[in-house]
Model the fold of this input.
Amino acid sequence: MFDGTVGPVSRDGATGPAGAVRRGMAAEPAGAVKPVRRRRLPLVGLLVLPLLGGLVPLLAVPGTAQAASGCSGRPAKTVEFSTGELRVYKSRAHACAVTVAKKPGKRRTMSVTLQARGGRVVSDKGSYTKMAGPVTVNALNRCVRATGAIGKKSVSTGWILC
Done:
């Protein structure tokens, strides 16, 4: 009903949220009692969140440095040299490589190359502060070789993962 006042008006003339009639819903009889709905979601959330927080450290698999390297798979070979190290990772069908600086900070020329036997060389070369790569090749049942360089120092693996 509309009587010129601002806001919804109920049958008894009250305005505001207490007397509001929802759009698209039939008005309830004056003596009807609505069932009370309780929200249990916050209580369940408070109980479940600490349990999930305790499981997070268990989900990390030791021995894989995915966050630090950008490569998936298990570490297959690490070759150290004076300015950093070359890391090669292997999953079932792929090989991945990164070159990581021993002392990150200032920009230096870094590169990493990776080649599967019978395939093309994939490389990443540029001026980086911490890491060159990752570079990935398909290496299902193939040998690979990787080369990493930081500044004028470099290292190569030869054919590995055969």
Summary: Residues 55-67 have pLDDT under 50 and may be disordered.
